[in-house]
């Protein structure tokens, strides 16, 4: 019944399902999964709560010590992608004042890892996964005698 603020949610694929990552507050992010499209069945897969998250920093030598284990404002995190079949969520901070960091949240271990990723200007991050899948047309699958 409540109106959802478009600036506080991200749509992405997690483990083969459409997902909504919703920034509830500055200390909570909820992850919802669409289990059944026809019946419009959603369920909450996970809540990321600031009080239960272990935050670590990787590869940012210039970051002040007081910031190395501090949590970011959850309202300013934007979900970019999910990794490892929905077990990890990749976030980017909305502002440039946060040292250009990318955050990886491991759902199973409730761990948020921050690392530096130099992105120039307004470049976008596009996740990519190599695959051994080869797409073939219908005619390539049928023996010659059936074509």
Task: Characterize the structure shown.
It is a single chain. This protein has 147 residues and is mostly beta strands. The protein has one helix and nine strands. It has one helix at residues 138-141, and strands spanning 9-14, 17-25, 28-36, 41-49, 54-58, 77-83, 88-93, 101-106, 111-116. It has a five-stranded mixed β-sheet with strand order 5-9-8-7-6, with no helix packed on it. Strands 1-2-3-4 form a four-stranded antiparallel β-sheet, with no helix packed on it. The longest helix is centred in the last third of the chain and has 4 residues, at 138-141.
Concise summary:
The protein is mainly β and 147 residues long. It has one helix at residues 138-141, and strands at 9-14, 17-25, 28-36, 41-49, 54-58, 77-83, 88-93, 101-106, 111-116.
Quick tags:
single chain, 147 residues, mainly beta, 5-stranded mixed beta sheet, 4-stranded antiparallel beta sheet, 1 helix, globular
């Amino acid at each position: 019944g409540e109106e959802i603020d478009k600036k506080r949610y991200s749509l992405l694929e997690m483990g083969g399902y459409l997902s909504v990552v919703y920034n509830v507050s500055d200390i909570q992010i909820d992850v919802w999964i669409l289990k059944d499209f026809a019946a419009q069945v959603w369920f909450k897969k996970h809540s990321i709560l600031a009080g239960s998250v272990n935050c670590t920093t990787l590869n940012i030598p210039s970051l002040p010590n007081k910031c190395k284990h501090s949590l970011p404002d959850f309202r300013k995190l934007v979900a970019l992608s999910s990794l490892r079949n929905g077990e990890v969520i990749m976030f980017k901070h909305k502002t440039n004042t946060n040292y250009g960091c990318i955050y990886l949240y491991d759902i199973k271990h409730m761990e948020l890892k921050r690392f530096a990723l130099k992105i120039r200007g307004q470049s976008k991050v596009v996740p990519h996964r190599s695959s051994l899948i080869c797409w073939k047309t219908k005619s390539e699958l049928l023996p010659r005698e059936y074509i």
